[in-house]
Amino acid sequence: MPLSSDDRIRSAVRGLADSMVDFRRELHENPERGFQEERTAGRVAEELGRLFDPVEDRIAKTGVSVVLRPESGAQRAILFRADMDALPIQELTDAPYASKNPGVMHACGHDGHTSILLHAARAAADERAKIGGAVRFVFQPAEEGPGGALPMIREGVLRDPQVEAAFGLHLWTPLPVGKVAVTTGPMMAAADEFHIVVRGRGGHGALPHQTIDALTIAAHVVVALQTLVSRNVDPMKTAVVSVGMLHAGDNFNIIAETADLRGTLRTFDPQVRDMLIARLREVSEGICASFGAQCDFHFQDHYPALVNDPEMADFVADVAAEVVGPENVVRDLVLMGGEDMSYFLREVPGAFFFLGAGNEERGLVHPHHSPHFDFDEAAMPIGAEIFVRIMERYWSRFPAPPSR
Ligand SMILES: [Zn+2]
Ligand SMILES: [Zn+2]
Description:
Strand content: 15-25%
Number of domains: 2
CATH architecture of the largest domain: 3-Layer(aba) Sandwich
Order of helices and strands: HHHEEEHEHEEEEEHEEEHEEHEHEH
Radius of gyration: 24 Å
Low-confidence stretches: none
Structural class: alpha/beta
Mean pLDDT: 96
Bound molecules: zinc ion
Largest sheet: 8 strands, mixed
C-alpha cells in the first residue's frame, strides 16, 4: 500500500532526527554572534549545497538562502526563515556539547532553529514533484541585534521568486515539548530603546546650593516614567516602560554633573507607541527643566511588533494540530519580547509560531538567554514536520495569493 503524504513526510522527517540533533550540537559547540556567523553560514551552505543549486550566500553579510522550485514550474512562492546567531553569554551548562567559544553561547535556541530548517529543506527537496509553488529557505544573521532580517529583505529575499507568505518558528522552553503556540494578530512587542542624559552642574556635596544635582533629578525622572503606563495608557492596552540603567556620580561627597539613563519601551499598538515616545520626551525634558538641568533625549527604534495574519495563524494552528494534536495547540501566547521576523511579516502575510521545548523532568526549564539554557531536542523533528506540511498544504488552503 502506498504511504499517504502525511506518513511519508513524518517518516522522512523522523529519519532525519539524529542528523538534526548532531548538526544542532555542532552549531551549539561553535556559536557565533550576529554578522560573525562565518563558520555557521559556511556549514549551512555546505549542507544545502548537497541538494540545492545555486546556494545564495553572503546575503546581508552572513545570510544564506536557497529556493526549492516545483517541478510544475508554478510561479507562486512562500518563505521559511531561521536565525543563526548566538549571544554574548558564558555558557554554564555541563552539556557535552557546551560552547567551545568563550563568552559566546547559543542561549536562545537559534542553533536549533537553523538545524530544524536545514533538515526541513532536506525533507522538502524530496517533495519537489508534488508542491504547488516555490519555497525560499532563509537563514538570517543577527536576530539578537542589530538585526539581519531587514538587510536580507533589502537584498531581495522576498523577490525572485515573489514571496507571498512567510513562516518561522521559535523554540520556547516555557512551553513543554509537544506543544505549539500560534496567536492571531500581535504576538510579540515592538522593542525600542531610549537614552536620557541629564546635564546639571556638579560640585561639593556640602554646598548643594551651588549645584544642579543631576543624580537627584534623574531619580525624579525614573519615578515619573513609571507613571506613563499607569496614567497615560488605556488600561485595555499593553505597554512596558523599563529603565534598566542609571549611572550618576563618582564619589560619596561630590554632586553629580550628569546622569545617564537607558531603558526599553515595549508596545503592540503603534498609536500607544507614538504617544509613549512623546510622553517619555515631555516628562524627562519637563522634569529636567523644572530643576534647571538640560535634558538630551534620544530614541532608538528597534524591531516593530510581530503581527500574525489571522488566516495564516489559523492555517499554522491547523497544521500543528495534525502534528501534535489539537489539544496541544495554544492560541493565546503573547510576549513582550521582540523578534526581527516582524520585518518579514510586515511585508507579507504569514505567521510565527512557538515550538514547545521545555522538559521539567529533564531539568530543561531555564529561560532563554540564561547561561544555563538548553532545550529538549525532541522538539526539533516536530518543528521540521510542521514546516514541511505547511509547504505541502499551503497551495490548496490558499488557492490564490492572499491579499492584504
Ligand atoms: Zn533571544
Ligand atoms: Zn531568539
